[in-house]
Amino acid sequence: MSNSDKISEKEYKKLKKSEEKFRMISSNAQDAIIQIDDHGVISYWNKEAEKIFGYSENEVVGKNLHLLIAPKRYHESFMKGMELYRKTGKGAVIGKTLELEGIRKDGAEFPVELSISSIRVNEKWNALAFVRDITERKQVEEKYIAIFEHSPIAIELYDSDGLLIKVNKACLDLFGIVDIKEIEEFKLFDDPNIPEKEKEILKDGKTIRYEGEFDFDKVKQLNLYGTTKSGVIHLDMVLSPLYIKDKQEISNYLVQIQDITERKLTEQKLEKYSRNLEDIVEQRTLSLQKKMEENQLYLDIAGVMLLVINADGTVKLINKKGCEILGYAEEQITGKNWINNFIPKEKHKEIKSVFRKIMAGEIDLVEYNENPILTKEGSEKLIAWHITILKDEKGDIIGTLSSGEDITERKKVENNLLRKTNELEERIKELKGLYNLSKLVENIDLSLEQIFQETVKIITTSFQFPEKTCSKIIFNEKEFKTENFAKTEFMFKKNINVDRKIVGIIEAGYLGEIKEYDGVLFLQEERDLINSVSEILAMTIKRKNIEEELQIERDNLFNIFNSITDGIYIVDQNYEIEYVNPVYTKEFGQYEGKKCYEYLHDRKDICPWCKNSEVFKGNTVRWEWHSAKNQKIYDSINTPLKNIDGNIVKLKIARDITKIKKNEQELLSTLENLKRANIELERFAYVASHDLQEPLRMIVSFIQLLEKRYKNKLDQDADDFIAFIVDGAKRMQTLINDLLLFSRIGRIDKPFKSIDINVVIDSVIDNLIKTIKETNAKITYDPLPTLMGNEAEFIQLLQNLISNAIKFHKEEESPVVHISAKIQKDQWIISVRDNGIGIDTQYFDRIFIIFQRLHKKDEFGGTGIGLAICKKIIERHDGKIWVESELGKGSTFYFSIPKIEVRN
């Protein structure tokens, strides 16, 4: 029963208008909107879907969704999901936002974001899918992942409980881990190589940096994870807590690790050597010159740069490593002023001042510092210095001894890592912001105003300098802004467009001076963030608008329910009534405080037919029920629906069919009477035609004797009268025989059997052989099927059709008759085509009526009952017969027979 049968024409037009409005909205949407029925067949496809997937609406409507736009790997799960969804309206993907791959018309795969909602159409579950192309967003994410994966510094990411989430390749290589599964359950605070004191500081939310030993043998003894390495290495580690936006709550821990074993070994060697050297200086300053050559050997094998500078700033001694770093020979360095010749010019003033004060004892020596030096090629190298004061026997300062390590490349790596780490942290903030925004807009309980107010906060915390960032959203002439919002020259604006119309504006800016940007006002990623926020808000506004329209339509729907002439009520699984329309209240009264079985049936317990209701299992059930309360009969359709809480409730639509049932009984009684009358008429026709045979034969016999004995013995009138009587009697006899044949069809109801129509045609040709030869007729036929039926009746049928085709031929042409057959859906269509005189279209129906003739008896013989017999035989075999013809061009008679006949 269609909805248009249940509601008034005016209300039906309202629903139609609502549907047109939905199509107008969705056709202008900037996201693909696709509607499929409960078999996965596409019923709606908007313009954005055409743009994203490359198919026009005409190409996809009526076709299966997953065969067009889903990769084959999804097909099996899609079909299983549709089977469940068709029955229950539920599914693993309903109401969720997923990231999957789609296929365009050209076969290219691309990433999409998919959100699916359930809707009811014509009492069946349909799905409404919102699809968005996220190719660009995925490319940005892949860029961030690439930075993480290809960083030369080992990086580990833990959750708030210290459970390992992710590591990069550099980390796996550093710790000798072949299979990442080895560390899936590893916890940061279980690592025995991190001091407990440092762990407590980290748990307190503070960043720590320390250099320490890492013992692989301890890892193996404790069976923490599998590693290919052994022994002890030295690590430089930075452990940082990451916080949830707008909260002082730790969300993750980020660990950055660098292997400094080689540097530590060198420092240890140097430290040992420096201690020895200090002892020598203190104890044997006077013999330093004598031991210079001996010490030079040690200096030359040192892995770091060793440099002795006199109090006047001249180089007294430099080892081989120092010469290699500077690019000079030893004699080109010694005796030269160190600062003037080997320090970049812009550092001269600063270093000279510090060196002078150290030599004068005015300031304490900084034992470790980093300074650049100038090589012979003119390039700068960064050196990490460990400096010791040299004194004479009197205790006066005579110079410095410095050990220097070339850290130029390491510094580049550190700076690059720091830069990439900062970039990664910024990307993480932006991705967190988008994630938080997506969660925000998914909350159906929030209004647009609440979403906008929270969004401006998300924007500020996602920028590079949150403390200096302010944000504002303008929508419907209302402003939603952060508390610190102020007009500033550093402002970025982005329109919010819905259906190509500007509905709002997003503003984000920096307060005060922003020196860190190096001339770049906003990072490209920050611009991308605002663009993404604009798109998400546009989609949310559009969704909210649709939800408001759907609510209006829902209200309209209940108005329609209230005006429908059928009874409607909604009941939950506890049999509590949620809604009753006026038709029911008029029949059964007020429903408040009553269970459905109390309200409709005056029962105190649950009705037996509802106790294990199929409706609450997701199935639609239809039945007739007799109301003991008002003595009426109802046709009831019970359909499962989901309420606001997502629970299944039962929608019952009942139509009063009391009068219809009464009319049905009267009609059945009338049909039985007609059937009996028809049987009696057939019996009368048979008896009448059979009983007329004997007196008619007597009349014919005596008339023939009269004609034989008195022909040519009386006058001409008498001969003509006798001839007329004989002719009329013979025609009467033929007419009675045909009527008897007509009445016999179907009276002896023999079981149908398999009949080869080719054999039937051969029998008919044998029966008509004399007529065929006399008219020089040509009978041909294609291979014909085997059918289920009565063989004698099929012979009678085809014999009547073929004999008619021969009879009604043109005088100037010999009859040509061709019989053929074809399959059409679930039946055989057999045709008998001739080249005869044809039939006027106005007589197509008349020729199948008994005793109807189109020609005078002196033109063509016959009683006009042949085609009526054909029609009766075909109808007995559950088929139909018809003709196609044109005067002067022949006729084709068609009849249909079911392919499989099950009648007995």
SSE topology sketch:
Layout: H1 3-6, H2 9-27, E1 32-36, E2 42-45, H3 47-53, H4 57-60, H5 65-69, H6 75-88, E3 97-103, E4 109-121, E5 124-133, H7 135-149, E6 154-159, E7 164-167, H8 169-174, H9 196-203, E8 208-215, H10 216-221, E9 232-243, E10 250-259, H11 261-284, H12 292-301, E11 305-310, E12 315-318, H13 320-326, H14 338-342, H15 348-359, E13 368-374, E14 380-391, E15 397-406, H16 408-442, H17 448-462, E16 469-475, E17 478-481, E18 490-498, E19 501-510, H18 524-563, E20 567-571, E21 577-580, H19 582-588, H20 596-601, H21 608-611, E22 621-626, E23 633-642, E24 648-656, H22 658-710, H23 716-744, E25 753-756, H24 757-767, H25 769-775, E26 778-781, E27 786-789, H26 791-807, E28 816-824, E29 827-834, H27 866-876, E30 881-885, E31 891-898
Parallel strand pairs: 26-28
Antiparallel strand pairs: 1-2, 1-5, 3-4, 4-5, 6-7, 6-10, 8-9, 9-10, 11-12, 11-15, 13-14, 14-15, 16-17, 16-19, 18-19, 20-21, 20-24, 22-23, 23-24, 25-27, 28-29, 29-31, 30-31
Helix pairs in contact: 2-18, 16-17, 16-18, 17-18, 22-23, 24-26, 26-27
Structural class: alpha+beta
**Rg from Cα:** 51 Å
Weakly predicted, low-confidence segments? 1-7
Q: How large a portion of the residues is in β-strands, by DSSP E?
A: 15-25%
State the end-to-end CA separation. 34 Å
How many DSSP-defined strands?
Answer: 31
Global outline: elongated
Average of the residue pLDDT scores: 80
Number of helical stretches of at least 4 residues: 27
Largest sheet: 5 strands, antiparallel
Helix percentage range: 40-55%
Output the strand order for the largest sheet.
2-1-5-4-3
